Amino acid sequence: xxxxxxxxxxxxxxxxxxxxxxxxxxxxxxxxxxxxxxxxxxxxxxxxxxxxxxxxxxxxxxxxxxxxxxxxxxxxxxxxxxxxxxxxxxxxxxxxxxxxxxxxxxxxxxxxxxxxxxxxxxxxxxxxxxxxxxxxxxxxxxxxxxxxxxxxxxxxxxxxx
Length: 161
Known about the structure:
Blueprint: H1 5-15, H2 20-34, H3 40-52, E1 56-59, E2 71-74, H4 89-92, H5 102-122, H6 126-142, H7 148-157
Antiparallel strand pairs: 1-2
Helix pairs in contact: 1-3, 5-6, 5-7, 6-7
């Protein structure tokens, strides 16, 4: 079974946030409903690609939260789309609906974006800088964070016409 990043985001959005294992199990259930085989490596790759593109993002709950395990949630570059039969997942899987602290999540994404931007600039990686520049706009539209300094750094790293 294959799923796009936006479909992964759609599945995660049904629950608010999921662990990686829960998302993999949800994809396994969808494949079963379709009569398709599951390639665990492809599932892992799809999740990694979606997180690399900020379609899914890691959320680390506060240490004071009862369950402070890292979760995946919908990111600023996502357009969540439900894959076929996904609407049945909340009835099949006994996962709690989770809420994430949007301000905390936005700060975590901003920190990650800055670190990745610094790496792209240091490596003179114009392709990654261009992707991250787009993400900076997505993030500002998605949350109340300022990314002007990150954007300036990334823009300076891009070839000038």
